[in-house]
Write the structure tokens for this entry.
Amino acid sequence: MPETAQLAELATERAALDDQVRDARITVDDLTKEQKRAERDVEQVRTRRTRDQQRMDAGQVTNPKDLTRMQHELVSLDRRISELEDTELEVMEQLEAAQATLDQLSGRAEELEKKATSLTAGRGTRAAEIEAQLAQVERDRAPIASGLAADLVALYTKVRDQKGGVGAAALRARRCGGCSLELNPADIGVIAKAPSDEVLRCEECNRILVRTSESGI
């Protein structure tokens, strides 16, 4: 059934997609941790700067040299905060892009899952229909087969099993309906002289040849 082939293709695509989703999720997790670490670094430096600024504002630093040193330190802390904020912003942008990729891949995975579910249901329905048709064919075949010679039925069954379900083929316009081989004049001559009840076989595919009014003999 076509659904079986489509499901196999979906399974292959889904396997590759699952690998991509896994890698994208790892990237998102790593960047999330990196962002939190960057946030902590910024917060620590800001806390230190706030503490030093409060000490200066409260007049707790009176020594001129200490005051000058602390002012320089505040400038350094401001520069450090700016650098850390830039790093944090860069990580946030990377995380946003990685999350978008993960969302896209996850969405595609959901689409494949829904399609696979639909194909599986369709295959089940089609299989049930085929089983019903097969049961009807078996019922129709029984009275016909019962009127044929046992050795002919056995031969047909054997050839059918060997040839993928087609044990007999109509001969039309001097061509076998099973393998599409056009019979040569010599074979056609033999068939034309053969009794109507003689079982004939295709020289190419070995199927039973069924003569019709369109055989061309």
Summary: Helices lie at 2-57, 64-146, 150-162, 185-193. The chain has a mean pLDDT of 92. Residues 150-211 form one domain.
